[in-house]
Amino acid sequence: TAGLPGESAQWEAVTSHSLTPETPIRLRYESGGLAFDREISLDQDYMFTIADRVTNNSAAPASLRPFAVVRQYDLPPDWAPFYILHEGAVGVLDDRLKLEKYRNMQKGESLSAGSLGGWLGLTTKYWMAAVIPDQAETVNAAAAASRDGVQTIYRVSYEGIDKTLAPGATLEYTGRIFAGAKRVEVLNRYKDEYGLPRFEDAVDWGNFWFFTKPFFWALNLFNSWFGNFGLAILALTVVVKLAFFPLQNKAYASMAKMRKLMPEMEKIRERFAADKQRQQKEILELYQREKANPLAGCLPLIPQMFVFYGLYKTLFVTLEMRHEPFFGWIRDLSAPDPAMVFNLFGLLPYDPSAIPLLGAILGIGVWPVLYGVTMWALQSLSPPPPDPTQRMMMQFFPLVFTFIFAGFAAGLVVYWTWSNILSIAQQYYIMRLNGVDTQFDKLLARLRGKPAAEDA
């Protein structure tokens, strides 16, 4: 439209200084009888505020509407999508969270919605650029991708409703653009300060937000107490163990009873080795007689899997964990353990995890090894499966999970190792309370030169 500044419009700088949080800049543009005065200010966390004042110096009314756009040209060369992480368009429009992944936008998918206020941005794991209209303005917002023949252009934008500006009249409008790190404290502050709906949901809390959000809150609280996110993870582990304490106590008591019944079960298997049906019948009657439940020991695993995923997601997506150190060689709790066994903990000048194909096997840090050891110790306290094949498979689990955990965030491995240690202490106490000799007791007895109760 004549008089309106387009993308290639040349604005005149009214101020001569650079844009800083202390010094906003002012621009001016005049054409077709319309005078645009724009002030751009910036705070320490990269929220840009664009205040426009338009004066109609012509003899005819003008029609205008607010408009803002953020573009991203291509993705980084080393970018790869994560299954558990949303990267792409994200926003809250009409009080509903809107998401569209980059890979879907590449295929031509888009999103659009009308909204009173709200916001819409392009996000990666830790960073976001978002357009934010006046929260009293009704807008149409959209996100899409297009090709210019060379690169892919990702775009989020909004348009407001048309406003008529009479001759001699002045119109003012203030919009914002956020282009910074998704630090939860900052997002919450903007939500309260500018009334931005669910602005903290720029962080991908996931479908299990009822776990990830409380975990983040607890970790932040413990970190403020201890001054170390690693210690905060240890404290959170204790809280989680206390929450599951009644359930785990029942499960461990059942496991202790099952372990105590193992000799009698072996006798039944030997007596009815040729009659599997009778064997199962006798074992079931033994369970009923002794009020033992072989499945009760598995019950704590179900909620713990949700806890495991929730904490993994929290450590993975929140910027607050990035580059946070623990004691010793762990300098980043959000990254895998760097002290790898196969380069002698850094003494040899190469990174085993970078070796093609073999990296997943050789890139094992100290904490994943500690996790494997604690998993084996915890497993030794549980009654072994009656089936020899299952028993052999269970024996390989600590080794398999050691390799799996090698690529996980060090903070998650610290959590799970510490959780195993607490479980070992709890389960050992319950076993001894029920008069059951464990592998630890047998090992200690052999070290002292005394036969264990079972050997005697």
Blueprint (SSEs and pairs):
Elements (H helix, E strand, L loop, with lengths): L11 E2 L11 E7 L2 E9 L4 E10 L5 E3 L2 E7 L14 E6 L2 E6 H5 L4 E6 L2 E5 L3 E6 L5 E10 L4 E9 L2 E3 L4 E12 L2 H11 L14 H18 L2 H15 L1 H27 L4 H15 L10 H17 L41 H4 L3 H16 L6 H18 L4 H24 L5 H9 L9
Antiparallel strand pairs: 1-2, 2-3, 3-4, 4-15, 5-14, 6-13, 7-8, 7-10, 9-12, 10-11, 11-15, 12-13
Helix pairs in contact: 3-4, 3-7, 4-11, 5-6, 5-11, 9-10, 9-11
Characterize the structure shown:
The chain is α+β, with helices and mostly antiparallel strands and 456 residues long. The protein contains twelve helices and 15 strands. The strands form three sheets. The chain has a nine-stranded antiparallel β-sheet with strand order 1-2-3-4-15-11-10-7-8. It has a four-stranded antiparallel β-sheet with strand order 6-13-12-9. The protein has a two-stranded antiparallel ribbon with strand order 5-14. The chain starts with 11 loop residues before the first strand and ends in a 9-residue tail after the last helix.
